């Protein structure tokens, strides 16, 4: 199977089985998504979704968030991982958005990464989800699933994986392929105990063939 054929089969499978895949973060505006994505770093979407309603109730937009003090915002974020840093990042982000971007959320990766707490992955999420730009955010799920399925080869960093994925995925599918890979990693292709028996891609999966199938044959 050529690499192009592998991509075609994987994408066709996801298109058939999850044609409307989308982020599991709950948001109503680009501002809310940006806050949620910043909070989601090394934290579950479920926990973020439990936390953001109180934040958005008190700080419904960038302008109000820019008025927050650390002591006011921290209690709303303390259940999230790394609450100290994320509190500082959100306040600094809001200040920069108000002072440098007129209170609007920029829609280019280059501008977004200037914001405190916003790295390339977050910027890719914002631009692909809000604007359907062909940007691939590579988190731990995407990195793992892409490698196991043979979509990436010898990619040792998220950026290396991103470059390979955007090279082979049709531009119009990149924004949804990001969600396909994340959700597959979150619910099927788990890090420690992948649910290969439930996976419709195991027939073409190099990881299953090399790592899992031999164990099944040996009865381990």
Describe this structure in words.
With 220 residues, the chain is mostly helical. The chain folds into two domains: 3-21 and 136-211, Endonuclease Iii, domain 2 (Orthogonal Bundle), CATH 1.10.1670; 30-131, Endonuclease III, domain 1 (Orthogonal Bundle). The chain is 61% helix and 0% strand. The chain has twelve helices and no strands. Helix 2 (30-40) packs across helix 3, helix 5 (70-77) packs across helix 6 and helix 9 crosses helix 11. The longest helix has 19 residues, at 83-101. It is elongated and about 60 Å long. It starts with a helix and ends with a helix. The mean pLDDT is 96.
| Strand percentage | under 5%
Write down the overall mean pLDDT: 96
Summarize the main sheet.
Answer: none
The tally of helices reads 12
Count of the domains: 2
Distance linking N and C termini:
29 Å
Q: How do the helices and strands follow one another from N- to C-terminus?
A: HHHHHHHHHHHH
Overall geometry:
elongated
Please state the CA-atom Rg, rounded to the nearest Å: 19 Å
CATH hierarchy, class of the largest domain: Mainly Alpha
Q: Give the tally of β-strands.
A: 0
Derived from helix and strand composition plus strand pairing, the structural class reads mainly alpha
Give the CATH superfamily of the largest domain: Hypothetical protein, domain 2
């Amino acid at each position: 199977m050529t690499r192009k054929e592998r991509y075609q089969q994987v994408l066709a499978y996801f298109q058939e089985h999850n044609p409307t895949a989308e982020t599991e973060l709950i948001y109503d505006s680009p501002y809310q998504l940006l806050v949620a994505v910043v909070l989601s770093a090394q934290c579950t979407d479920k926990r973020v979704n439990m936390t953001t309603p109180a934040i958005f109730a008190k700080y419904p937009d960038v302008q109000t968030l820019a008025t927050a003090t650390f002591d006011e915002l921290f209690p709303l974020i303390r259940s999230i991982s790394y609450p100290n840093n994320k509190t500082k990042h959100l306040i600094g982000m809001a200040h920069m958005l108000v002072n440098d971007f007129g209170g609007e959320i920029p829609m280019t990766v280059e501008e977004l990464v200037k914001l405190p707490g916003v790295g390339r992955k977050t910027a890719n999420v914002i631009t692909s989800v809000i604007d359907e730009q062909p940007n691939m955010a590579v988190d731990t799920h995407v990195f793992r699933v892409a490698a196991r399925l043979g979509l990436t080869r010898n990619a040792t960093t998220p950026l290396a994986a991103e470059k390979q994925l955007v090279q082979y995925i049709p531009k119009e599918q990149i924004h949804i392929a990001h969600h396909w890979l994340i959700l597959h990693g979150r619910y099927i292709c788990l890090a420690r105990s992948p649910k290969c028996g439930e996976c419709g891609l195991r027939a073409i999966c190099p990881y299953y063939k090399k790592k899992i199938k031999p164990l099944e044959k040996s009865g381990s």
